[in-house]
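G., the chain you wanted modeled:
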Amino acid sequence: MLVLIRGAGDIASGIALRLYRAGLSVVMTDLERPTAIRRTVCFSQAILLGQVTVEDVTARAASLPQVEAILAAGEIPVLADPHCRCREALRPDVLVDAILAKKNLGTSITDAPAVIAVGPGFTAGVDCHAVVETMRGHTLGRVIWDGPALPNTNIPGLIGGFAGERVLRAPCDGVFRQVLDIGAQVQAGDIAGYVEDQPVTCTISGVLRGILPSGVTVFRGMKSGDVDPRCQPDFCRLASDKALAVGGGVLEAILQKTGVLKYGR
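Predicted structure as tokens:
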């Protein structure tokens, strides 16, 4: 079974890990210049680096003619194809929209026999067959077969007792310059980077588990980094509990929609 995932950021990569380990063939797409924050656990980095390994799974930058060989080698092809034009040639059994744009950027329920969307911006039964909830809490990872996911609140979920304070945001429009590396121990007030000449400052202490690379063009308020207050550097190299929970929901939806599971849809 071939699964095409739109997006290759941290949540999409957690989904890919779950599906790959369940024996499904996975192909991913992302921007030509990915803007993922948690770069150490994002398969999108293959586009920039040629190849990347997240946990025990390797992904490789690919053009459309290379996809079959990379799959045969037991790796995940990642295409710089933000509009997912490869879909017509690949004809996947399943399409998963895991861009997490909080809105539909062009996915249709007719794109594949099974179309699964992740997070707000989609309505199951209208523009996809199923939606998987991404909001932290009691319904995280649940499959919705009729209707939308919970609406976007613009408030990050609690980790270590902190929510919005964890996120580093661009203070102005401009070009981001990274100062600290992922995995660095930080204190409140430390400068993690700059946009033009304005500092991007940590508001809590912890471990910098994500940050944009230098050279990315940002807008004021754009998410540019993430501090984990649990102070566990090893977490920077592992898919998050949220990503794996969402991945489990996507796997459940695929198995039901494609008839591998004989109950449900």
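DSSP finds five helices and 19 strands in the chain.

Shout if anything looks off.
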